[in-house]
Design brief:
The protein is largely without helices or strands and about 350 residues long. The chain folds into 3 domains: about 5-120, Cytochrome C3 (Alpha-Beta Complex); about 155-240, no CATH class; about 290-340, no CATH class. It contains 8 helices and 10 strands. The strands form 4 sheets. It has a 3-stranded antiparallel sheet, with no helix packed on it. Strands 4-5-8 form a 3-stranded antiparallel sheet, with no helix packed on it. Strands 6-7 form a two-stranded antiparallel ribbon. The chain is elongated, with a radius of gyration of 29 Å.
Length: about 350
Amino acid sequence: MKFRLFLMGIGIGLVLTGIPLTAQVVSVQKTPEVVILDQLENIFEPVIFQHGLHADMATMDEGCAVCHHFSPDDRIPPCRECHSIEIEEHDLAKPTLNGAYHRQCLNCHKEWESKEVCETCHARKVEDGGNQKTPLVDKTDIIGVAHPEIHVPEKQIFKTKFKAGKLVTFHHREHIELYQFQCVDCHHQENCSTCHEGIRKIAPLQKKLNVHHDPCLGCHDTETESKCGFCHMKTESPGFSHNLTGWPLNTHHERLPCNACHPADRPLNPLETTCINCHTNWFNGNFDHEVTGLELSDTHVEFECGDCHLDEKFENPPDCASCHDDDVFYPDFLPGEKVE
């Protein structure tokens, strides 16, 4: 099948040519924003498929597998690799390309019943000499209705009936940017019908406890009543501070996501506080002290680490007494200059 594409990043070519891509980990940012399907032109103009918007939605369900049901060898092949334009008499169970496309849409868009439903995706062709053009691409249009842009809120405040603490603060952006979560980590098996009934009607609000607690169970113990106060408070709770762990982060570590130091296990467990617990490739002579925010002077740069960091316990303040008088001590006197 011939595809004409609006290129939105190099990942688009990989998908259409069937170059190996792992279906579960393909980033939405690396997939095509828009795909124009023009192989089946007959009565209608080519279909402008809003792939990017559908991919955003799919991250809350099973990811790429919601539509790409077949991914041999962890790659996502184009539909035309398996589905032909004409009916294959030796394999009547396999839908044609036309059938495969429509089956994909109608699996979710079950409300499409009216005679005008074709125009939701298709622009009707006109006779030669007409001036009708293919519809303009609208990046918010998913089913003929403008869909609000999906964005990550800073936080959400839930008001509950729990007497000991009626407010629950969920720091949404923190989970995405700091904890490096994907949508599907919390939004388990969700799809459009979770929030919508038909095209325009919003689904009724779910008030059952499990609806709000289950997404958190992967990391938090929400089943023990004595721990309710961890989330349920009388006032809005602040975001996470690493100071609460007894290990305040310095300028360099505070820029890192959690998984830069902590393994992917959840919940996160405490780490050893020695530098070499993470920085295993350091040895005397190859460490650039400037990465700590302090560039050593010409005199101090020749010293061994243990000359200032006694017993190489780097979590303790440097000791100056072995070389200097008692009136010289850290941090009032620095063995170099601070750097940004």
